[in-house]
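pinned: reference chain
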Amino acid sequence: MAYFENIDKIKFEGASSKNPFAFKFYNPEEVIGGKSMEEILRYAVSYWHTFTMDGSDPFGAGTMNRPWDKFSGMDLAKARVDASFEFYEKMDVPFFCFHDIDIAPEGSNLRESNQNLDVIVAMIKDYMKDSKAKLLWNTANNFTHPRFIHGAATSNHADVFAYSAAKVKKGLEIGKELGAENYVFWGGREGYETLLNTNMKLELDNLGRFYHMAVDYAKEIGFDAQFLIEPKPKEPTTHQYDYDVATGHAFLQSYGLENHFKFNIEANHATLAGHTFEHELHYARINNMLGSVDANQGDPLLGWDTDEFPTDLWSTTLAMYEILKNGGLGKGGLNFDAKVRRGSFEPEDLFHAHIAGMDAFAVGLKVAQQLIDDKVLDSIMEDRYQTYTEGIGLDIVEGKTDFHKLEEHALGLTEIKQTSGRLEQIKSTINQYLLQAFAK
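pinned: its structure tokens
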């Protein structure tokens, strides 16, 4: 059965196209910096927002008109698989991502849940034989069910810890079977509401133990995917243990896990943590911890995770600058962890949203590559930190000085001449490059 029968495969038509079902800037075959756009951007569709979300929120019922929703139970799960691969083909995306409960309903017990997963995984595997779309990453949902009310790997109840481990074990097996390039850990409820009843040391130690067991099991079954942690600062706990990249990095270092994990960085989570998207990408990059990206954006006027499709070209440009400086995303990709707005309820809106996001990052890619080719920001950095390339500055960088020598140098100073950071000029230059991209 076709669920999007009135929509043809989305193709690149160029910036002058008026066709709402065409790419204006994303040309998968266009070569940028020696690689095609498709190779660099590695777009992925998120199963949960695209095929399972119904548009409900704390203030209202679902609004989404989805033709597959006429089914229920396992029939619904199978229909979603049919719809998903039709969508991947028509959007011409190379990857998709899912949580376990996105693809198959939970049963009355874990054994039944696993049996449901086996049926759907076999169906997905069969589709993948003839599909371009591959599995970028999968993960276990250890946060929705009431059993996770006090967390999963950080739960105060050992049975919940065990249940969470069993779900991740199954997830690793599924990832291996479907050839996932990554496996994501998102601590949806790994945090606390109050310290008054929380043994933080025990919870963090248990989380470290959990991750080590996951690493061990992946090795046992020969699953060589990149492990990723996805930081998030808010919702649903008062304090998340994976607040941001720096917090997550410190955790990994504390528990000897830094060589086994990288980060899956989401734009909306970055801004909720009080950082820019590019800050989180940059911190991960300079510490060799940038693994993959959840491509979305948040509403700056709202204090929660709105998961909007990315359309901010300034943001996508600075994000792609960091990704290109990282040498790309390796096994990772740009997953659209984004949902259409509640009022955009027709199936066609799923195409419009993904086109907008894919075009936005394509523009960002082209502008970022030009900034790198012209050494715009590199030149600014070189000039700004020039004093560390000679004299006392070079001694500092090379570790050839101490407080005695620094004091001697300082006492001999009569004037320290500062130079302007010229931030406004830099921003204007980036705007100039953005506008030039549209003029070509």
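why pinned: DSSP finds 16 helices and 14 strands in the chain. The mean pLDDT is 97.
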